[in-house]
Design goal:
Structural class: alpha+beta
Oligomer: single chain
Number of strands: 2
Helix content: 40-55%
Strand content: 15-25%
Strand order of the largest sheet: 1-2
Shape: globular
Distance between the termini: 17 Å
Largest sheet: 2 strands, antiparallel
Order of helices and strands: HHHHHEE
Amino acid sequence: MRAARFLSVFLLGLMISLNVFGQAQDKNAVAAQKAEEAWLGLVDSGKYAESYKVAGATFQAAVSEEKWVEAVQAARSPLGKLESRTLKNVAYTKTLSGAPSGEYEVLTFEAR
């Protein structure tokens, strides 16, 4: 339950923070994946404050740095060291729960 809640909040934060809006072109998908993996790398390495600092304005307006660091540390730390991450799906949407309307590219990863 805790992991599922973390995943939901984390994915919403990730989508908002990266401001991955745009057309569904291959080069944009590759760029989005690289940006998301870089941001996830900050979180995976415990650089929670840094992940907040590179987040988009919409995300920063929704949560303070202190609250973000506290929440992600509590949720991410028990999961342990990342062993692998594989892109499983890319979906495009104009709506995302809790986010303003726009064009979103939602990348789903499987992580161990």
